[in-house]
Design brief:
With about 100 residues, the protein is mainly alpha-helical. Helices cover about 40% and strands about 10% of the residues. It has a two-stranded parallel ribbon with strand order 1-2. Helix 2 crosses helix 4. The longest helix has 12 residues. The radius of gyration is 15 Å and the shape is globular.
Length: about 100
């Protein structure tokens, strides 16, 4: 679903495709900083492997080492999101996220 297919899914949102080389997590984090994104959305695509137990999945490493907010999607949606729960601790960064 590269190129035009992404625009169809995104609706009115602006879509850009960027292909990078390197380790997945490093490439995602570099692109997030370079593009100054407000939110990184990443899918959880595989079950835990032995390697993930020690170093974490790409999504987990993106959350742990990144400086941008990350939304990890665990499964396909069955219907559009209408109600969303946001857990916060009222810290300055949590307040800014709202």
């Amino acid at each position: 679903m590269i190129g035009g297919g992404l625009a169809d899914v995104a609706g009115a949102a602006s879509v850009a495709v960027k292909v990078m080389r390197g380790k997945h997590c490093d490439a995602i984090l570099a692109a997030a900083e370079e593009e100054k994104v407000d939110l990184v959305v990443i899918g959880k695509h595989r079950s835990v492997t032995e390697l993930d137990v020690f170093r974490g999945s790409t999504g987990e490493r993106t959350v742990r080492f990144g400086t941008r907010p990350v939304l990890m999607i665990k499964q396909d949606t069955l219907q559009p999101y209408h109600r969303i729960l946001v857990g916060i601790d009222f810290s300055p960064s949590a307040r800014a996220a709202l």
